[in-house]
Amino acid sequence: MPEKSDYYALPPAIDRFSGSLRVVGWVSFWAQLVLAIISSIVLLFAGLFGFTSGPGGGANNPGTGGGLFFAICGLIALYYSVYQAFRFTRLARQLRSPTPSLRPRRADTIQVLRFALVASIVGMALTLIGAGAINGTLVAKALRQPRGIFNPSVNIEDFIQPIDLFIVQANTNTILAHFIGIVAILWLLNAIHKASQS
């Protein structure tokens, strides 16, 4: 491990960017990880309890079918984005190496950031497709709901259930987490561009 005095020998641009990369990497990592875990728990809860309740076995639940598939794909992409955010912190440590030959090149760092950006954008797109499918199903259920006096012969599956809203919330958390990752990466790309100009 390098001595503390070695850090002061770093070129100022690398010193500033590695500090930014470390801080933004950790903030992005924890924010995305917390939202990913919450979304996972909610989707697991919806899967275990929402799909088996009621006479229809949850067949009318908006979490079934394409909506749930894309929501889960977006969540998997989110866990990959969490890994990439953690990787930024390791990259920041490598940039602080006292040996210049061990530091990643600027082009390699930009390549890592761009790849992480593409992964986050793809994850957000998948999650948005899932959100569209889920919201479409909820609108259809809302339009099918009987109006006026409650009729006991009406199928309860025609009503929007609380579990439906849990699925929407999980999907919204995943979208927010991808958004945090995208903003963090764009900020880092701007920071590396400014560092190279100074």
Automatic annotation (TrEMBL):
The chain crosses the membrane at residues 23-48, 68-86, 112-134, 175-192. Keywords: Membrane, Transmembrane, Transmembrane helix. The keyword Transcription regulation does not apply. The lineage of its organism: Bacteria, Bacillati, Cyanobacteriota, Cyanophyceae, Desertifilales. The keyword Hydrolase does not apply. This is DUF3611 domain-containing protein.
